[in-house]
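A common beginner's mistake is to predict each chain separately and then try to dock the pieces by hand. The better habit, illustrated here, is to supply every component at once so that their relative placement is modeled jointly.
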Amino acid sequence: MERIVARANARSKLTGMVQSVAEAATNNEVLPSPEIHLRAYRFMLLARVLDDKFASLYRAGKIMGGVFLGRGQEALSAAIGVSLREGDIFAPLIRDLAGRLAFNEPILDSVRTYLGSIEGPMRGRDGNIHRGRPKEGQLAMISHLGAMISVVNGGLFARRMRGIKGTVGVACCGDGATSTGAFHEAINQAAVEKLPLVMVVADNQYAYSTPTNRQFACRSLVDRAVGYGLRGDEVDGTNLSDCLRVVGAAVDRARAGEGPQLVVAHLLRLCGHGEHDDAGYIDANLKNSELGRDCLKLAEKWIQQQGWTDTATLAQWRSEAIQKVEEAVATVQREAGPDPFEKNYWSALSNPKFVEGNE
Amino acid sequence: MSITYLEAIREAQAKALADDPRVFIYGQDVGNFGGAFKATKGLAKQFPGRVLDSPISEDAMTGLAIGAAIEGMRPIVEMQFADFSTVAFNQIVNQAGTMFWRTNVTCPVVVRLPCGGTAGSGPFHSQMMEAIYAHYPGLIVLTPATVEDAYSMLLEAVALDDPVIFCEHKFLYYHLKAEKLPTEALPVGKARIAREGRDLTIVTYSAMLHESLAAAAELRNEGWEVEVVDLRSVKPLDTDTVMASVARTGRLLCVGEAWPWGGVTAEVITRVVSEGFDLLDAPPQRLNAKDTPVPYHPNLWSAHRPTARTIASAARKTLQS
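With all components supplied together, the output reads:
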């Protein structure tokens, strides 16, 4: 365990050095503006408040199935969401509530999906983080890791065939998904086709309970970028400014036609795999390391230190977020769940003449 | 002029590409090379940028097609051999098969599976995959047995809004010929009476249609009139046509080239027994391949799958029981 902590700390220090502001300036990268910091922060805050609400609804027995939180990953995820534009494609994973909200997912979509409302995009057919609006570029993840990446490739591929320019796709995964064949196939495919894909890997030190030293043997997952023939960047996932800068620049490069990009963020999951998991396996030394810092608190401190906001405004934002979340939950709790006797539910094909076997 | 089953598949793809700008073909070696079996011969040149070589990545090939379908395209994925589609299994059954039901967004992908055995192909270039895909919800599974069906059903597959697993049989590629391409066809979901008879119904599909027809011809010499039903599509499965035939003959033999556990033949018998038990004058029978991997040596291979001889033998037992 100590070795993992040492390696993680070394990575985090290296990241800090590589991604220094001075270096960013010499790379002609645009430093993220105060406005984008504040916009991202507010999505981080809203996501944290909403996640906390889901956790309490779960503990109260109001949510069936799992609850998966993005605690500790909001800076990275929000940085993705605010870097995207309408018309882009986003394949979030289980810890991307902040990014989804920043990419225009209504609060109601997540609440309705967790509570199984028929008004939500999944209409009670699928739950929790398995939601999306594919026609609007919000892909609805399946559980099999790595499987969404090639689907993003397909959207980008189709757009190129149809002469649509200037849109990008972002696919998210954790350190665990990088071990799948699907991840390898899709990243290689994006590289071969030079698609505007940004692959964001949140290396959060554990895939469920499995530490990274049982997941991969390279120094850092970013080293794989060379092997695929694409650009890779590392970022301190606890630092909102760095995430905005590195993710934003990767999205800009993809949009400018520079091909697929890999971004590997180092952070620590500040919760269990799901709310059913007490995460007793997480090493205390990691929790106390730089990786274990809470990105939301760091961002809050940073935007105050810069003089971009003050305590009163922060408190107001928090109470606004709480109000939005409470309103959404109250609305959805009045909505109906699915009716198993409605015949429409039992057709997996769009063409009714081919549906059989449900009598 | 005559046209082969393989040429019909190529012609259907050429027509789909010509008629619909949303169609593209993606698969290993399908570009300038024209495909391992030449099912896309000349198409890359005829339709620049729309017939594209993929890396050897069945999972990502299928995922890409699904993503393109969400964006409104009509991709055709060629698996080099049906056997390799196991690598894409997750994308096919969990991504394409669940898309419409979960998200209300259709997924008009066609996955072409060159399936079935040919002498010398061995365990990994000979498999029949229709049962495994038919088992999952959200997929249409087609098994054309004739040149005309290979053409018309592939065109209909491309036009359908749901994902289609198109099982084209490699044994039929070269030797099966027709005079011309059809201008009209039975729709997907309808079985066809390939030969009329009154003593026994053989229900079959894909290459086994031709073995079954040969068996029926042999049995005719012994005085038996055997009816042969070509399912054409195994999902949806045309139970009505099967039941009507069994009502006429009172006897049923189901023949498939796939493995015996479960599968299409078991499904047909289950439906007939549960919905039309009183139509049967004898216990229904089925004949499948043996429950081993598909063998390499021609002697073993021809004993592994049903043939006209073994079908006729099984039919005699059913007729005499």
